[in-house]
Amino acid sequence: MHFTYYTDKTVAQCMSALNERLQQKGTASRPGLEGWVEKNGNFSMAVTTKVLKRFPRTTRLQAKAERLGSVTVIKGSVADGVTPKEQVVIVGALALVGLFIISTGNLLPGLIAIAAGVLLNIPLMGDHQNSDYLTSELQKTLKAKTTPPVAAKKALEGRRTADSKRPPQAKKPATASKPAAKKTTVPARPASPTFTPPRTGSEPLGKRVGDDL
Predict the structure, then answer these.
(1) Is residue 120 pLDDT above 50, yes or no?
(2) Domain 2-80+129-162 has what CATH class?
(3) What's the rounded Cα separation, in Å, for the pair 188 and 173?
(4) In the chain, what are the domain boundaries?
(5) Is residue 64 packed enough to be buried (19+ CB in 10 Å), middle (13-18) or exposed (0-12)?
(6) Whether the predicted model's global pTM rises above the 0.70 cut
(7) In what order do the strands lie in the sheet with 42-51?
(8) Which helix (H) or strand (E) holds 108?
(9) Which one, 45, 48, 111, 128, has least CB within 10 Å?
């Protein structure tokens, strides 16, 4: 089962109140709770009771508190089992199945089907009564309600109305990107060769041809 509650307490105040409730010892009329709380608003609560005064059953509630404007919203879930009417339907259906199996000559499978209907109802009955207790204790501890406060409700409705009347923002046209300029490479010119006149073997170094003329 999923639930949503509203309270005027801040998230810090909710966590403090839940921590104090978890520290309280249980009594015969008000069982103790187990669980944990976190500063970010996450918390968990669990209770263990006996079904049919014999079978223990533990049910856990998990939720988170978030601040929205001037109100704190608690959203969570808990296993709620089945109602007493649904329990009767389950037991009756499995009992009929078991009797049909027995009528076919299979005694043991038929008895198992009938017993399964009773055993299956034990955790479902426990979750049903434990979930009611956990959600009730949560509402009492946080002074939470199933409907938001009048001021917060008007603020939320006004915010939704303002958002609906706000004109949509025009999207800027996409600009085409300019193509990148192509790079042109100029081939390098080859170096011009230098002419050096040949030298004769009889000519001394440093002497030019024609000095003897």
Answers:
(1) yes
(2) alpha beta
(3) 46
(4) 2-80+129-162
(5) middle
(6) no
(7) 2-7, 71-78, 55-68, 42-51, 34-37
(8) helix 107-142
(9) 111
